[in-house]
Amino acid sequence: MTDNLERMLASGRDDPMLRFGLGSGYFNEKEFARAIPHLESCIEQDPDYSAAYKLLGRSLLEEGELTAARDVFEQGLAIAIAQRDKQAEREINSFLNKIRRLGS
Q: What CATH code is carried by the domain that includes residue 78?
């Protein structure tokens, strides 16, 4: 999956959905460090993309970057609340609670 998306990116196409797809693909392949820059780019292009914050936070958490993950989750939580996206709000709060339990 990521191979096709990488080819699209290399051909000059770049948009939030493509970057989210790449980030999600690498996340699913457990290549969290490769997912992070694509998810960051997705958020840069579309700052209201709450799912990207959630997946970026999870990727950072998997990489042991607790403080960065917390910061991203807090930003994503604000977006989810503003958009009245209750599911994203619950999921992000769950990850924030996990980080609190881990001590960051």
A: 1.25.40.10
